[in-house]
Amino acid sequence: MKHFILTAMCCLLLAGGACFAQTAQPSLADLAARGRHSTRKASKIITNDDIATATPHTGNEQAAAKVAPAAGFSAATSSPGKSAEKTESAKNNSSTSKDSPAVAALKKQLDSYKEQQDGWKHSVKKYEDLLATETSDFRRQMYQDALEGDKHNVALFQEKIDQTQADLAKAQKEASSGHGGSN
User: What is the pLDDT of residues 15-50, one digit of tens each?
Assistant: First the structure.
């Protein structure tokens, strides 16, 4: 019995010592809170005066028109397949200044859809090339699945392009009839 009491007293003293050791140090949450407050920087308020603004248009549209073809030319020379698209975009951009905002937005959306569709078509071509040379059945299946998904995306973007072209034709017709009636 004395042996049991002695063992129980030792366990209680050890447990009490462990509890006392934990209360002597600050908790991890307290240390984190102190660290946050001591390392926090003063916040700065940014006003419109701090932000650089673009200069308003003062008849420098001709200078901008001269810069735009040069930028299109450098992009066109880097990728020969897109040179026709870039010149078409430049024509569309020059005519958008005459168009209503709705027509200009539809043209921009149409160009975006065509670019995205071209990206998917490029991906289709890549997977077709990979399938032609791949011998592993697992990789062939992966390429085939990716190819089907990309072809599906090309078809979806074609639908979007068709719908946007129809909307654009309708908006152009409305804009031209609106301009004709006001003259």
Answer: 877 776 666 676 777 777 777 766 666 677 777 777
- The DSSP call for residue 54 is P
Using the predicted structure, report yes or no on whether residue 52 has a pLDDT greater than 90. Answer: no
Pair 92, 107: CB distance under 8 Å: yes
Cα 83–Cα 96–Cα 110 angle in degrees, nearest 5: 60
Rounded Cα distance, 20 and 16, in Å: 6
- Half-sphere exposure at residue 7, Cβ-oriented, CA atoms within 13 angstroms: 4
- Residue 68 CB partners (closer than 8 Å, separation 6+): 90, 93
Which tokens hold the place of 104?
């200009």
Tokens of 1: 């019995």
Across the chain, mean pLDDT equals 73
Residue 24, amino acid:
A
